[in-house]
Amino acid sequence: MQRIIGLIFVLNFLFAEVWAQTDFYRPLVPIKCNSVQKCPKDWPCCSPYGECGAGPICMGGCNPRFSFNETSCAPMPALVPPHNIEYSSAPLSRLDGKEDTAQLVSRGLQHFNKYLISDVQSDAKYMLENIAFTYSGPASIHPQTGDIVLSMPRGSSGCLLATTRYFLYGRSSVRMKTARSRGVISSVVIMSAVGDEIDFEFLGSDLHNVQSTYYYRGELVYNKMVEVPVFSDTNANYHDYEIDWNEHRIHWLVDGEIVRTLYKEDTWDEELEIFKYPQTPMRLEVALWPGGLASNHPGTIEWAGGLIDWDNSPDMIESGKFTALVKSMTVIPYTNKYISAINRCLQRESNIAYDYIMPPGGVFDEMSFALYCGLIPNIGKWSQSGSNIPRNPIQVARLSKVSTLVNTETDFVQNINDLASLPNGTVIYNKTQQTSLSTEIKSSSASTMVQTNPIMKLKRLVSTFCESQ
Ligand SMILES: *[C@@H]1O[C@H](CO)[C@@H](O)[C@H](O)[C@H]1NC(C)=O
Ligand SMILES: *[C@@H]1O[C@H](CO)[C@@H](O)[C@H](O)[C@H]1NC(C)=O
Ligand SMILES: *[C@@H]1O[C@H](CO)[C@@H](O)[C@H](O)[C@H]1NC(C)=O
């Protein structure tokens, strides 16, 4: 996703941006948002940490449930097959620039408060196509190895990398060295805007195990954690951590071995009659954060192994900061129930965005989305929100639509195996009907035959990108 050629261009508009920004995007006195209190009109967007803001807070991670209204959060740039996201480390070269920020941008990483914040459409399109990750906190590139260095100096709140695009099912892989010492947490997590989450959490006080867990819509149920051993010290050695998530099951993998599996069918809630299974579009996030801060909840401090020792921990003595190193990150998206509309869109446009449709009763599932084809979800200024983005629903997938003839402009397909095509190129998902309609078409006229067979295209996509499912 990264293109070196755009470096100078990006730098120019980034620095212009810094001087042009005079507004703040968070109130000086924090405003909380949660299930009983939505954000106010002036600070309409609810962050993943439950605080209201505007501009960049309305982009990645913006929680539509607790924001001012249903258009406050910007639509989420989508990662769909055949595209993927990749960061691979390579040593710095002369082209990478001297500043940390320039090096990061040249490798497709941008600070989250700049990403898609521009009223110049061409700049926004450039960011959408070239920036694969946002970061917050002190991130940098290691000059010799090219690893991304996540740092946590004294008293800071750490560092977070997140993919700019959301995927609904896919395989995420991270090769990294975690941070060490009591109270210091490293995480590899995929997380959705409404709090679905699949995690690896590493305690700096235990470098031979990793905790795997998941959450459904942010419900704090703590009995889902399973601890698994890692073959060698996670701070001294690189290991591969992967989350392979499809609509039926989740695999957690360490160094290529499946260490845990969760099946959707095992998450059925008898009372609510829903699957409490992560099923909303996710971003991959890699983080270094202080679990052992005196101001944290006592339960969090205890879980983190105790308070951080900012004076005597070896990394504080050696370099004045805790660090985690990321050698590579990859996300390969899988297909989902929207594949028919996605594939249709990809024939004209590569930019697709998901947007939440508020479901009745507030139960989000994998069908609670609108799909926008060709939308660039940019916000002009820090004071604005997703409500300023003109949504142009060329293709909208809807939960309630029941039809046997598939209109690929507006419908999603329940099950890829149910698809069939008519001789005139129309896609249907009723095989019984296929026979009678086909006969009908042949007898009436042969003039409407079309050359492309959409079914074949869909199958190709599926076989290429879902082979590990
Ligand atoms: C949401 O709020 C904005 C103001 O922030 C307003 O312009 C917009 O019309 C509202 N949308 C809906 C669907 O109520
Ligand atoms: C193909 O045939 C079906 C069934 O008769 C019809 O509904 C559909 O509109 C036709 N599509 C085209 C492109 O002619
Ligand atoms: C499929 O089409 C047949 C014939 O038109 C019809 O009897 C059947 O109910 C349809 N099935 C579904 C699931 O719509």
UniProtKB/TrEMBL annotation:
Keywords: Signal
Signal sequence, renumbered to the chain: 1-20
InterPro entries, alphabetized: Beta-glucanase-like, ConA-like_dom_sf, Glycosyl_Hydrlase_16
CDD domains linked to this entry: ChtBD1_GH16, GH16_fungal_CRH1_transglycosylase
SUPFAM superfamilies xref list: Concanavalin A-like lectins/glucanases (SSF49899)
Entry's Gene Ontology BP terms: carbohydrate metabolic process; fungal-type cell wall organization
GO molecular function annotation: glycosyltransferase activity; hydrolase activity, hydrolyzing O-glycosyl compounds
Domain GH16, chain residue ranges per copy: 85-319
Signal recorded as keyword: yes
Protein name (Swiss-Prot/TrEMBL): GH16 domain-containing protein
Organism whose genome encodes this protein: Torulaspora globosa
